[in-house]
Amino acid sequence: KNNVELVDLPGTNDMKEQTALVREQLLKADLIIQVLNARQLFTLNERESLREYLVEKGIKTVLFVVNFINEIEPEDINSLWGRACSIANNFPSNIPRGMSNLYRVDALPALRARVKSDRYGLNNSGIINFEESLQKIVNIQQQRIVETRLPRLEVIIYQVRAKLERKAV
Question: What share of the chain in percent tops pLDDT 70?
């Protein structure tokens, strides 16, 4: 819809062959949606993968979606969300001004609510807020595609130049 292609990639903790596929696809993507597990939020491996796969490649159009918050004890949700906000806010972001790069979606309750046409359940799950924000971001990103892709290209050019200079010596 709206000239948008979604690609569901394997996680960053999967097999080496899948990791290579993920890296290749990330370089082609104009917007990344990183789904995080609230039960294991921003593990060291996830942060290292994000740095290696995204930051070092100049990819700054990333939305973080925290899933499974409905499985967190109510008294722990505020501290968990605070941690998620802190880490997401420190991630280099080129998301349009006024838009968040962090969302909460409880996927299974959202699916159940969608099947039952339960508007209250959909709103409670966070999926409506995420879908509306995603649509706005996609519309804006389509208008600023060069601005989104140029930083990645500059990083790649710098890396290629550095390798060529090392080989020339």
Answer: 83
